[in-house]
UniProtKB/TrEMBL annotation:
This protein's name: allene-oxide cyclase
UniProt entry tagged with the keyword Isomerase: yes
EC number of the protein: 5.3.99.6
Origin species: Davidia involucrata
Keyword vocabulary terms for this entry: Chloroplast, Isomerase, Plastid, Transit peptide
Enzyme class: isomerase
GO MF entries: allene-oxide cyclase activity
Transmembrane segments: none
Reactions performed catalytically: (9Z,13S,15Z)-12,13-epoxyoctadeca-9,11,15-trienoate = (9S,13S,15Z)-12-oxophyto-10,15-dienoate
Subcellular location, record wording: Plastid, Chloroplast
Length: 309
């Protein structure tokens, strides 16, 4: 039967000496493991290391430590260099008989493979798998925006404090919107324009516009982009709610009578088919176009359900 390695203690050993002994045995234990399983060496060379550790001990611990080291050395058999083990080994814990070292010591040594490790990876598109199921059909929606001068819109905030329109001036606004056939009240627009540049040669301005179209119970569409007062422009459809959730596309803005009459043609993608109530044959844009009296008066049947006002 193989004797269990232990340390013969003496009553005069101080806590400092006990701590040193702990560190010593940890070094010996790790050394034996490494040169047994990871980098084996001939057995004739291992005692040299133990002798070097013997010289580093305090004189008060020389005798007890030497006998203990011999016990450990004689009880360990070093295998040949052909022994193969797994890269990581967990050693069996052993108990120290010293009263200052009553806890079990468990050492785990991990060795990296000697040969270089090849790491392969693949790049996967970040597009959601559900994107493939999104409708790509383009649907047109026609809307008229009419400023009836009853909402205090637009409000021109001349932050530049200059007599002419200048960079930084703000224009919050909110107007009524009607169907393309002008027979039904749809809701309102609400948003803000930031003046980017005045174009005196064209008697116009360039704004960055951020606003929404509200369609009552159907939800809303958000748009953003350049708004030119002197020519037609395209803005981006950035999203929506209700039946317009997940929508994207663009919208063409046509100036009819600035800033009182505008026509929008939406090119919507990413949503199910629009309800028939929103599909109609648009009226050709002209300065004389007007909403139907019933729609203007918001009579029953001439508005969307719970239209936004």
């Amino acid at each position: 039967q193989v004797p269990t390695p232990s340390i013969k203690t003496h009553s005069h050993i101080t806590p400092r000496e006990a701590s040193f002994t702990t560190c010593l045995f940890m070094r010996v234990y790790v050394y034996i493991y490494i040169h047994t399983y990871i980098y084996p060496i001939p057995i004739t060379t291992s005692p040299n290391f133990l002798l070097s550790l013997r010289r580093s001990l305090p004189s008060s611990m020389a005798t007890s430590s030497t006998s203990s080291l011999r016990t450990i050395s004689s009880s360990v058999k070093l295998p040949t260099a052909t022994n193969t083990t797994s890269p990581a080994q967990k050693l069996t814990p052993f108990k120290l008989s010293n009263p200052f070292l009553s806890q079990n010591l468990r050492l785990t040594a991990t060795a990296a493979a000697a040969t270089p490790t090849r790491i392969s990876f693949t790049c996967k598109s970040q597009s959601n798998s559900s994107d493939s199921s999104r409708p790509t059909k383009v649907q047109e929606l026609h809307v008229y925006e009419i400023n009836e001068r009853d909402r205090g819109s637009p409000a021109y905030l001349r932050l530049s404090q200059k007599s002419v329109n200048s960079l930084g001036d703000l224009v919050p606004f909110s107007n009524k919107i009607y169907s393309g056939c002008l027979q039904k009240r749809l809701g309102i627009t609400a948003g803000i324009c930031v003046l980017i540049r005045n174009v005196p040669e064209k008697n116009g301005d360039v704004y960055e516009a951020i606003y929404s179209f509200y369609f009552g119970d159907y939800g809303h569409i958000a748009v953003q982009g350049a708004y030119l007062t002197h020519q037609d422009t395209y803005l981006a459809v950035t999203g929506g709610t209700g039946i317009f959730e997940g929508v994207y596309g663009s919208v063409k803005l046509q100036q009819i009578v600035f800033p009182f009459k505008l026509r929008y043609t939406f090119y919507l993608k990413g949503i199910p088919d629009l309800p028939e109530e929103l599909l109609d044959t648009p009226v050709h844009p002209s300065p004389t176009v007007e909403p139907a009296p019933a729609a203007k008066a918001c009579e029953p049947g001439a508005t969307l359900p719970n239209f936004t006002d």
